[in-house]
Here is the input.
Amino acid sequence: SQQGEEDPQALSIQEGENATMNCSYKTSINNLQWYRQNSGRGLVHLILIRSNEREKHSGRLRVTLDTSKKSSSLLITASRAADTASYFCATAYSGGGADGLTFGKGTHLIIQP
Amino acid sequence: DGGITQSPKYLFRKEGQNVTLSCEQNLNHDAMYWYRQDPGQGLRLIYYSQIVNDFQKGDIAEGYSVSREKKESFPLTVTSAQKNPTAFYLCASSTYYAALNTGELFFGEGSRLTVL
Here is the structure.
């Protein structure tokens, strides 16, 4: 399986600190995406990084991709209470589309005020 | 506002009953998907449809059925053949380009099904 696996499973930090979560996968990918899920809600797409990109920014989010290590990291800077959620990485394999999107089990992030 | 509407948000079912979850989108997306999410787990693909009147099985299609008679609608029926149906069900959609290339998905708010 080329399912992405997030690490850590859970993370608790103080408001204002930076939060880093990681995703590892097993096979070649077309792109890697990060999604956020608030408790009991649907997923929201955060950012997509293609296999030929190494770093991407969106507001307070920074995503890196290391295809040699088959890993990605999501950094949330200056965390806020509203960032409390589960974060999932999803990998799209080479040549595949949305039907081949594979989700990890997620990192549950808690921002303490 | 454009989006995906799932209903009902909560649903209770007795064993042996079929139930249908509704998913409607007004994003003009060609492709639609159904995922199942269990506690502490990632999403697993049940069925997807890239065009009206056509759909394909995902990884865990057994015990489920779908139809795609309209572009906007992709209902999911959980049949009595599904042995462990209690879960959170998520509907998603994407553009045709994303469906074939990037895979970026837009999700509804989910429906939680509990079997009594």
Summary: The mean pLDDT of chain A is 92. Chain A touches chain B through 26 residues (CB under 8 Å). DSSP finds no helices and eleven strands in chain A.
